[in-house]
Amino acid sequence: MQLVKSPPAGMPALVLNADYRPLSYFPLSLWPWQEVVKAVFLDRVNVIAEYDRQISSPSFSMRLPSVVSLKEYVDQTRPPAFTRFNVFLRDGFACQYCGATDELTFDHVLPRSRGGRTTWENIVTACAPCNLRKGGRYVRDAQMRPRRRPHRPSMHELQEMGRRFPPHHLHESWQDYLYWDTELDA
């Protein structure tokens, strides 16, 4: 991961909750500058840090925010939505049968053809070859067991998993609000 001084393309702002923690790590909670300016005018955010770039109209000018915090706290204890992305994130973007990271799909542990439902507890990330190999069979018949038992993750668990996937570049004004286990290259 590299720390950059120049604004990232599009000049997005890092969005923090009212407690100054990112709303999400993966994807990183970034808003385009247009949305941030709108939120500033609607008094929904506090500007914490700014880029050196300025926007202007005939009657107004402001430096573009690089870090903002919401004025109202967004509860992070709600259960996460069941989405393909969140299943992949829960499973570390790796096939739960072989560990591959390419051609990822969903797999129903108990096949739908045998009554399996599309739920957190019955879906795992699988690469296309493993998914095809397992087909509509039970895991024991296919002799394929998921590496981890599928479960409904908490928002905290998904946040922690997201911290394993830092972006390649971070703007220097964001670094005090983001915490990854890896070292930043200056």
Structure, explained:
The chain has a four-stranded mixed β-sheet. The protein starts with a strand and ends in a 15-residue tail after the last strand. With 186 residues, the protein is of the alpha/beta class. It is elongated and about 70 Å long.
Tell me the total number of β-strands.
8
Count of DSSP-assigned helices: 5
**Poorly predicted sequence stretches spanning 5 or more consecutive residues:** 181-186
Give the strand order, joined by hyphens, for the main sheet. 3-2-5-4
Describe this protein with a few key phrases.
25% strand, elongated
Question: Topology of this protein?
Answer:
Blueprint: E1 2-4, E2 13-16, E3 30-31, H1 33-41, E4 45-57, E5 60-70, H2 84-90, E6 104-108, E7 123-127, H3 128-134, H4 139-142, H5 155-162, E8 169-171
Parallel strand pairs: 1-8, 2-5
Antiparallel strand pairs: 2-3, 4-5, 6-7
